[in-house]
Amino acid sequence: MGARLHYAKVLDQYLFYSQGGRIHPGLVNKVMARPADDRTAAFLVLRGWGDDHGTFTEQWRIESPRGAVLYESVPREIHLASRAHLERLEDEVSDLEVDGAGDDYLAVFSLDDREVARVAFSVQREESG
Fold first, then answer.
1. What pLDDT score does 57 carry?
2. Strand pairing class (30-33; 114-125)
3. Contact status, residue 107 vs residue 119, Cβ threshold 8 Å
4. Which of 14, 64, 81, 111 has a CB 3.0–4.6 Å from the CB of 68, allowing a cystine?
5. Which domain holds residue 81?
6. Residue 37: its pLDDT value, please?
7. pLDDT in tens, 18-40
8. Which one, of 2, 6, 110, 115, lies nearest residue 54 by Cα?
9. In angstroms, rounded to a whole number, what is the distance separating the alpha carbons of residues 26 and 115?
């Protein structure tokens, strides 16, 4: 069967913590970019793996709306101690150069070199001033 991605969120770090810093289904996947350039503010890639036991190699990447790979994480070994265990992971990315504002960015998640999930998120420009 294999491990399953229970949740994945791609969120602006400031917005996430200013809204309580808790994962819930209503969280909007949104990253903010500075108005002066196409670089992001700090954002989080949060996820939870479960429904299996054993050790797996996880990796994820960020793709632009055109399909270009903008960022790729280093492979990470994760261990699920039991089928009931939920392994919660968090990575922070900042100053990522993006292709401007848009709703069609993707975070693509892989386990043991096999793509298992895609999560869409938007990039919005911060208000200047």
1. 95
2. parallel
3. yes
4. 64
5. 4-125
6. 86
7. 989 999 888 899 999 988 888 99
8. 2
9. 25
